[in-house]
Amino acid sequence: MMRQVELVERVKAYDPSFDEDALNRAYVYAMKMHGGQTRASGDPYFSHPIEVAGILTELKLDHSSIITALLHDLVEDTETSLADIESKFGPDIARLVDGVTKLSRLEHQSEQTQHAENFRKLLLAMSEDIRVLLVKLADRLHNMRTLTYIKSADKRRRIARETMDIYAPLAERIGMQRFKDELQDLAFAELNPEARGSILARFEFLQSQGGDLTALIVDRLKHALAKEGIEAWVSGRNKTPYSIWNKMQHKNIAFEQLSDIMAFRVVVGSIEESYHALGCLHAQYSVVPGRFKDYISTPKPNGYRSLHTGLIGPERHRIEIQIRTREMHDVAEFGVAAHWKYKQSEIKVDGRQYRWLRELLDILEHTSNPEEFIEHTKLEMFQDQVFCFTPKGDLIALPRGATPVDFAYAVHSEVGDTCVGAKVNGRIIPLRAQLQNGDQVEVLTSKTQTPSPDWEKFVVSGKAKARIRRFVHMREREQYSELGRQILIKSFREEGYEISDKALGGVLKKFKADALDDLFAAVGKGTTTAREVLVAVYPGVRDTARRRHLWPFHSRARARSAKATSAALPIKGLIPGMAVHYAHCCHPLPGERIVGIVTTGKGVTVHTIDCETLASFQDTPERWIDLAWDVESAQDMHTGRLHVVVANEPGSLGNLSTIIGKSQGNISNLKITNRSVDFFEMLVDVEVQDVKHLSDIIAALRAATVITSVERSRR
Ligand code: MN
């Protein structure tokens, strides 16, 4: 176990001005709080945070990261609270520790590999500060190094799988090649020890045949470069067993055929020297075609820069060579962490938080090929996403601002259509509430529920929007269709006919309708008139109409039937044959002042004169028509909409319906829009005779103690 002094010395070596006192206090505090806890290895638990801190000193991270590493398991595994940490080490450290704790809580939540990509994004989205992610990766690296001590084979496998699917790609994403290689290799050792063993055995065999080949080749390469006056640091190694295994899988070749198992690095002083060294090596050795890649002029999305080439090198061995500068080398090994090191001073001057994304975007600024551009946009995208779990642990990605309704539709269209409520982390929340990263969402459904047009106002996902719109459209069409059927029945009766499906079926083609419902809907909308349909079915009807002018008797008969029609629609001032709708924004009632708005293809919509929607028609006075209720003939019931808040207690809903019933009102629809522990908020559609009737009902409801408030709804 690394001693306190040693850790302090390591940090001092690269950052002499760090807060030594805070680091010492963190060391002592973490040791005290972890107390007698032990690891699976039998070591004191405290050895783990120290090792994690040690790993981070290799990345030369700032003292806040090192302190965070020391404290990273306190909140999760000891009695320590975040408030304790804040009072002892300040808000910045507390924020970092909180970030790591949140990431740790997500571990082992998503075991299915198909969610790995989403899970990686979730981790990135939650690591607002790059240092949180770096501590988490170092934590995982140390846990992988000590994985063999865990007794349960299932648990070991699960952790190794998660490392392979989530943490290693994440390390690669932010350019930390060295972390990625080690994580992958440790996971590979657990997941496929036989394959790894056979590759290592092969290395040994080659070694026994040719001696220390890498050292020999390193020497030759150094010489070749020195001859041209290039001073370079050259190193060589076998590629990792996992990368060789991967290549064998991909190219489906046997190990014996795999020739370039060695990789060499040439680190030089400048970019010019990199190209110079490349030219020099290409001149002295045969080049393997198709292996040259220039990641200096076109860096990888994670910031990696190098020249790659393949040679038949010294001793006629096929080798891979990477050529780069010292700074590129640091970035290649430590990715964003190296970048952080180079920019450290700027960030301290700003006093601004280090945002990994901003930095990554900096790196990405110079990318030029389309693939990288896509990668780039993806990075931006998942800051706009929110990731939530189903109760089973499946991970669902949604646009930021998504609500439980979006979540329900993402799970399944039918779940969306029938959702009535949602539990988030075990608590019931309103359907319009916004979901947060890492929320576990349980959707409550009811077979009788249907999508509400109101949902469209707050959902953000394309799928939810489309489904709700489709449903509303279908509903609307049903209503138009029914309205059209009624209009046709009346018009046909005026002429002494009854409509029949058979007769109407014969004229569908003429109106470009596929089914009777289409024809009804066209009449309901007003795009086809009832008269046109009548004439099509009974061409002789024209004659009847003409004869009317000749015989006053028929004229009178028509006048009577016209009166009957207006009795069905108790409104004066309507244009005959036009479809009429009552506006859903204001639900006009007899007794109120009303006005009509004409919409081409839709007919007339009746609004109350004080309806707010009318403001949007101010510039088109030609669409306004004066209307008035024909009070004497108004016998039909009309729908008034109430916004009601009642106490959430037994019997309160029964009470509500009793009061409305006693007042001769009829509830035609009731929709709970918000449900909390204390009250229900709902919209109640009541069929009433006129506005006075509705006012009486409102007064009766207001008198009841369980009812908190009642308003006429104008939505
Ligand atoms: Mn840990």
Describe the structure in your own words.
- This protein has five domains: 4-187, Hypothetical protein af1432, CATH 1.10.3210; 195-341, Beta Polymerase, domain 2, CATH 3.30.460.10; 471-565, no CATH class; 568-633, no CATH class; 638-712, 2-Layer Sandwich (Alpha-Beta Plaits), CATH 3.30.70.
- Helices cover 51% and strands 16% of the residues.
- The chain contains 28 helices and 21 strands.
- Strands 1, 2, 3, 4, 5 and 6 form a six-stranded mixed sheet that branches.
- A hairpin with a 3-residue loop joins strand 14 and strand 15 (603-608).
- Residues 48, 72-73, 139 line the site of manganese (II) ion.
The CATH class of the largest domain:
Mainly Alpha
CATH 2nd-level architecture of the largest domain: Orthogonal Bundle
How many helix segments? Answer: 28
Fraction in beta strands? 15-25%
In round numbers, the mean pLDDT is: 80
**Could you name the CATH topology of the largest domain?**
Hypothetical protein af1432
The unreliable regions are 342-381, 543-567
Helix content estimate: 40-55%
Write the layout of secondary structure elements.
Elements: H1 4-14, H2 20-34, H3 47-58, H4 63-71, H5 74-77, H6 82-106, H7 116-126, H8 130-145, H9 153-173, H10 177-191, H11 193-210, H12 213-227, E1 233-238, H13 241-251, E2 262-268, H14 271-284, E3 286-287, E4 293-294, E5 307-312, E6 318-325, H15 326-334, H16 336-350, H17 356-364, H18 370-381, E7 385-389, E8 395-399, H19 404-411, H20 413-417, E9 419-424, E10 427-429, E11 441-445, H21 462-494, H22 501-505, H23 516-525, H24 530-537, H25 541-550, H26 552-568, E12 571-572, E13 580-582, E14 594-599, E15 603-608, E16 624-626, E17 628-629, E18 638-647, H27 652-662, E19 666-675, E20 679-688, H28 691-703, E21 707-712
Parallel strand pairs: 2-6, 13-15
Antiparallel strand pairs: 1-2, 3-5, 4-5, 5-6, 7-8, 9-10, 9-11, 12-17, 14-15, 14-16, 18-20, 18-21, 19-20
Bound molecules: manganese (II) ion.
